[in-house]
Q: What sequence folds into this?
């Protein structure tokens, strides 16, 4: 406790009851949360009486590790510290058989599975207005209904209502749940089974929720009903970082919580991550939101450098950003380029490639989303749950067995279990392929039943035939072997791990679980940047209509979310922050010749003079602005020099910028901006 601040200590040792902790960015809220658990342990509470809920597996793992190190429980593993969805999957694994039509070996459908199921509904039913191109629209409606734990008929009608109900019927038939079902079915189990509700309420005497600003209505209803007996619940969140309302997050949960419980509000206002002036900038911006719980963020860290600049066009902006990275002697992983929408990344990628600077687009394919890994997981899903037709039809013809799309449609008509009763509808080749597939599933089942999950993992690649199917694609085969390794490591950590439990764990590897950055510049949308931090941050494209996005105009709630989004971007910066906009930008297929600076710039205290092509410091002098020199002497290169690049071939120097950046026109690829520090250039004889 001695290393905690006074505000943190007050929260950690707060009396039992309902507490709302509004925690500013970088204020150490996770540490406070785990210290609260340690405090409860010192008060004599046992581990299994505490429930800690968060939003990413990474955060859950961090909390679990901190608890194991800092709490002296005999069985610290008995505490449940995990995501909302993993908690619901855990509860439903024990209790879902209380709902008619479900068994404990239910499948969990991820986003791709959900889309396939919706597509199946739209193609196998007669709709006049809805077609296979409306999958996303139907998916959005389903998500809206379930996030709010609402009734289908209250949200849609006509064909949309029929499609939603057909989708839910298909999942029930397949003994499957989508991500949102994990929440709604948990509520259904608790609502329809008072004995189950009472048992869960009595078990969890203390509930702690991290990232409360990201909860949707269904998640709030879960913690509300679980806390009704003991009413010892602490929620920790930052309303300034509520940026996922499009995904169902509800900032109104802050009001709901204060209405439903006798709440004490605590504030964490000191930022331990960012420079003093960066925190001040972010606080000024967030203070314009009406939904904000009033607080004053501050930092005792020394002032960093804040720059603000405008550019003639988006390409100039990209060149400046990448040039700035080249000039600074720091690790690439210290830099992040933050964009409002994915489409903006192209120019920055182009510049980074030209300079041979390693980078990563944050949010690429996750391991469990890779096609070859999904194939194996689908085999395991069918092995465990033969009713899972979405998984079955994905793998019945992989590796190829002569069961084409037409044959699969026929199988769907008669049902996979009834194929042998309708052999007259299939060719000999197709029947042979179906039987071959059935034999593979049977062999896998025998290995699993007779020798266990570990033996299944060791033999499944050869039994399925993936070692032969991927002979010419070693990268994919390596990914499959990595899956086997993941299973072995999981079993080593938990000898009691079952196939059912592993599949649920794999499906629950959420989008917010991220790979290691290593030494690469990060390009990311602001939505994907939440939870990250960098010494140097470039927030680009600060133009009205882009940031804030145009659809927010005239809508107070959406404009406040855009403001929160920029707050998140600014508070990712630890030491240096650069804000910029372009006077023209190519987006949505047209050239915007006139772009207006974002209205948020004035809210942060900036003035600007577009005609000068540069920003102007705030009146209080906090912001440092530096103009770039147009040209400078190069080390050994000058304008009109003939050069040769190992990748781009021969070219001519058009301009020299600073000491080591050349503007070169190549014969084959056109004009490029290259750094002598990284580009492998050689001078040629001028002729």
A:
């Amino acid at each position: 406790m001695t290393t905690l601040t006074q505000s943190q200590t007050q929260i950690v040792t707060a009396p039992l009851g309902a507490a709302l902790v509004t925690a500013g960015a970088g204020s150490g809220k996770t540490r406070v949360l785990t210290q609260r658990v340690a405090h409860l342990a010192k008060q004599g509470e046992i581990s299994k009486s505490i429930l800690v809920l968060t939003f990413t597996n990474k955060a859950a793992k961090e909390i679990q590790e901190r608890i194991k190190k800092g709490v002296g429980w005999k069985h610290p593993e008995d505490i449940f510290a995990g995501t909302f969805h993993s908690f619901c999957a855990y509860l439903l694994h024990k209790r879902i058989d209380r709902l008619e039509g479900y068994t404990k070996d239910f499948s969990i459908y991820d986003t791709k599975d959900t889309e396939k199921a919706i597509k199946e509904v739209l193609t196998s039913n007669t709709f006049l207005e809805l077609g296979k191109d409306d999958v996303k629209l139907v998916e959005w409606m389903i998500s809206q209904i379930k996030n709010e734990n609402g009734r289908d008929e209250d949200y849609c009608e006509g064909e949309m209502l029929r499609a939603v109900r057909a989708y839910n019927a298909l999942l029930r038939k397949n003994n499957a749940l989508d991500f949102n079902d994990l929440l709604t079915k948990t509520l259904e189990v608790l609502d329809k089974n008072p004995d189950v509700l009472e048992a869960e309420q009595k078990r969890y005497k203390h509930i702690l929720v991290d990232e409360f600003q990201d909860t949707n209505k269904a998640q709030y209803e879960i913690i509300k009903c679980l806390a009704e007996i003991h009413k010892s619940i602490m929620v920790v969140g930052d309303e300034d970082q509520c940026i996922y309302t499009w995904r169902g997050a509800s900032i109104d949960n802050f009001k709901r919580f204060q209405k439903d419980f006798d709440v004490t509000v605590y504030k964490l206002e000191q930022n331990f991550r960012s420079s003093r002036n960066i925190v001040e900038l972010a606080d000024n911006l967030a203070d314009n939101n009406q939904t904000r719980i009033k607080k004053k963020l501050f930092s005792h860290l020394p002032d960093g450098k804040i720059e603000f600049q405008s550019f003639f066009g988006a390409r100039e902006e990209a060149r400046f950003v990448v040039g700035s990275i080249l000039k600074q002697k720091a690790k690439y992983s210290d830099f992040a380029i933050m964009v409002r929408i994915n489409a903006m990344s192209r120019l920055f990628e182009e510049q980074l490639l030209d300079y041979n600077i390693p980078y990563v687009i944050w949010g690429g394919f996750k391991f469990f989303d890779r096609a070859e890994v999904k194939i194996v997981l689908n085999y395991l899903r069918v092995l465990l749950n033969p009713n899972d037709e979405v998984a079955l039809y994905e793998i019945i013809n992989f590796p190829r067995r002569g069961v084409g799309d037409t044959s699969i449609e026929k199988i769907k008509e008669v049902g996979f279990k009834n194929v042998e009763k309708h052999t007259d509808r299939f060719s000999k080749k197709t029947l042979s392929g179906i039987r071959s597939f059935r034999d593979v599933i049977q062999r896998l089942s025998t290995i699993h039943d007779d020798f266990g999950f570990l033996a299944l993992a060791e033999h499944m690649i050869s039994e399925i035939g993936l070692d032969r199917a991927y002979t010419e694609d070693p990268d994919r085969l390596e990914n499959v072997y990595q899956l086997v390794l993941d299973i072995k490591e999981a079993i080593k950590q938990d000898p009691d791990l079952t196939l059912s439990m592993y599949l649920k764990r794999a499906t629950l590897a959420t989008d917010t679980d991220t790979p290691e950055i290593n030494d690469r510049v990060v390009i990311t949308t602001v939505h994907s940047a939440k939870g990250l931090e960098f010494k140097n941050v470039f927030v680009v494209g600060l133009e009205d209509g882009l940031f804030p996005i145009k659809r927010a105009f005239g809508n107070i709630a959406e404009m406040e979310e855009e403001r929160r989004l920029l707050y998140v971007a600014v508070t990712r910066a630890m030491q240096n922050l650069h804000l910029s906009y372009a006077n023209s930008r190519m987006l949505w297929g047209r050239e915007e010749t006139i772009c207006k600076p974002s209205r948020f710039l004035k809210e942060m205290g900036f003035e600007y003079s577009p005609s000068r092509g540069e920003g102007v410091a705030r009146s209080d002098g906090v912001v440092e602005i530096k103009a770039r020199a147009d040209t400078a002497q190069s080390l050994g290169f000058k304008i009109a020099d003939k050069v040769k690049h190992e990748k781009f071939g021969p070219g001519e120097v058009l301009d020299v910028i600073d000491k080591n950046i050349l503007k070169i026109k190549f014969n084959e690829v056109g004009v490029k901006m290259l750094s002598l520090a990284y580009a492998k250039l050689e001078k040629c004889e001028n002729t």
Remarks:
- The first strand starts at residue 18 and ends at 23.
- The two ends are 75 Å apart (CA to CA).
- Confidence is low (pLDDT under 50) at residues 510-515, 610-634.
